[in-house]
Amino acid sequence: MRGVRIPQDLNGEDQFVLGLSVPRLAALLLGLLAAYTILHLTLPAPLQLAAAGMAALTGAALAWVRPEGRSLIHWALAAVEFKFGQHLATDPELTERTNPMKGAETDRKLIIDRGPRLSVVTYQTQSTPTHEPPSTTPVQFADDVIELPEPAGNDPPPPDTDIDVETAEPAPVYLGGPQVITFFSAKGGTGRTTLATEVAALLAMKGRYRESPTSRPQPLRVVLIDFDLASANVSARVGIAQPTMLDYLCDLTVPHPDPRDYIVRHQGTGLDVLLGPSKCLSGDRAELFGVPQAAHILSTLKAGYQFLVLDMSANLGNLETYLLETATRIYCVVTPTAGSVQSLYRGVEALRRLGLGPKLQYVANKMRDGFNLSEPIGDLNGSLVARIPYDPAFDTAENRHEPIALRSAGASAEALCHLAASVYPALQLPAPSRSRLRSFAWLSRSRRAG
To answer: Does the pTM of the predicted model rise above 0.85?
Structure first.
């Protein structure tokens, strides 16, 4: 596979005529055609002119009016989808309340699993015994969430069984295989390394899971890998200097070195880190590390970790292309500068040409008051997962060689937690209080992550 050359004349939307995309141009033409048709109908003149003007204005609005960087057609479809989803979500509940026996007999339709989703089901006290024992088979409902069944018997289990006692963090059953998360930007200085380090640290610190509904909560197994061969800076963020990936490459004591032997643990967060090379491996040294070495590292570490967070350079060479194709999610990082937005357009276009469009998500970093990136993100037909504000505490944490998650609090910490929750949705599950009245437990009968 060869590197990707990025053209210089790209924009976020395929403009056809008058700066309009094909759908918006079609809406304009339909409005004008409707106005022309109305003018040729046998109607009273005032009504005819008013109806024709309304049709023309509607077509123009659909073509040029773009609230929050999105067309009116997009908002109309989103509203219809939202209302339709609300109807589907509330209809089974109405059926169950009006006819409990029928609701119990006609359960929701099973569907095929399309990805790892989590669900934590709180236990409900039973005032009257049931005639049929509950099923012990996990049921997957029509909203793509696998719900864990309640155990048989009338005695309710101890409260807060889905919460880690030590950290008070939700600990659902983890479903699915390892996930590879990477942060990408076609321009340097956007904060890829910072976000990768902070997200990995938060997952290791706060992420909890269970292997089964009855097992004890365990910390997520997270590893941060620095694949930036030209400028590896993860070591400066976590305050660890050795061993590095260069030691792994140059180890001649064994015929096939194991990359797991070169992983170090950050004591403050419990995060495992594979540091990037201490020397620049670009240029004439690029042959020391390529796709085969990266494939061996990833295949080895996938067997022992649930989340692999990758830091990589801003290039799109053979190695970077392979890492992006391997990734489960790609977070495109943009800052509120004209150069960064232009690089975002070019980088996203290059990634979509590689077929990576469905993996892309967008993060705004170093945001200040008064800056709005809704228009360029709307041009890319995406939405911001998180908006990280500008905070000097990031520089202070880097100078202390520790993640900001260890000490800082406020808007920056909340934004980082929101970003980490987009990777592992269980971080957004509410932690119920221990003083919660059991008589009101039915209000939160099923809390879902995803």
So the answer is: no
